[in-house]
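My main concern about presentation is that the manuscript never shows what a single data entry looks like. The format is easy to grasp once an entry is in front of the reader. For illustration, here is how one protein appears when written out as sequence plus structure tokens:
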Amino acid sequence: MGILKHVIPSILLILLSACYEDFTPDIPSEPVLCVNSLITAGKPIKIDISRTRLYSDEDSPTTVDDAVVSLFVDGVLQTPDYIPNEGDSIRIHVVSEKYGCADAEVIVPVSTPIKSAKLNPLLTEIWKDDLPSYEMLADIGFNLDLQLTFDDSPIVKNFYRYTAKAFSKAVDKEAYSTKQDDTNGYQTDFYPGDLRYDFEPLFSEHIGTFESVMGADAYGFTFFTDSSFSGESCTLHLYYLNGRCFIKSTTWDDEIIDCGLELTLHTISQSYYNLAYYQWIVNEAPMHDLSEIGFGEPIWGYSNVSTGAGIVAAQACSTITVSLHDFLEECLKGTR
């Protein structure tokens, strides 16, 4: 977040400081059920039930001990262990004698297959040592240039999220993860780098001119829509800066350098996107600061639950793996 975002609100707060007065508003508020669930195609459904409370009532418990939850799929009552499928219309109905009832409905999206993932690692620095006690001792720095391509469905308006998870087989395997000392000697510390959110324009499509001028950015936001490429092929341009791979081994095994990224394209419900957008407004947008001091329209929280509390969202995921094995092997060539 740029410094400009805070300049105007800070000045206004100073100018209007004499107008403030402490008071405790007497707001009548009956607690209602709050329902939260992120439904993922192919995985068990987890539902969190709680109840609302006043913002000032931090010590009041939010647990609900008499909730009865019913799960309907395409209008048919299902058992709690139902595994959702893509395209399911899911309705969650909750009843509590204390707090009333709540309903929420969501359609599980159809996943969007990843067509291809092209990885271009760029070596930035390398340090190697030939200590006799180690078969390999090296520290490799790099940047990652990634292109993730998929075909958008023209049938519905799609909402997406991109995530990535680093992996290192040497660390994941128990035989390696329990042997990280000089005697038994395997260690691979792999970090893919920091994602440059501003490198992919789609991550910033929700940012208007005013927000941009005021310093708002897309840091941490990898949600986007198909508004600019509906029914067409799309390629995400992803750039990771300052990645590193530190390798220490007393004996050599090729799996030591089997590192990479699991890239996931989430096709998400609109409720999931709306929640992410609301959170971005609260945390990043200057309009939220202005509304809090009375110089902008109030920004209301988002919910698709009948009580106005909670979010029921859904997603279907496609994952592809890219490996840095060959790149690391080339970097280490001639050192073993």
Observations:
- Confidence is low (pLDDT under 50) at residues 11-18, 173-184, 290-296.
- The longest strand covers residues 233-249.
- Helices lie at 4-15, 169-172, 174-177, 209-213, 270-284, 286-292, 325-331.
- The CA atoms of residues 23 and 233 lie 56 Å apart.
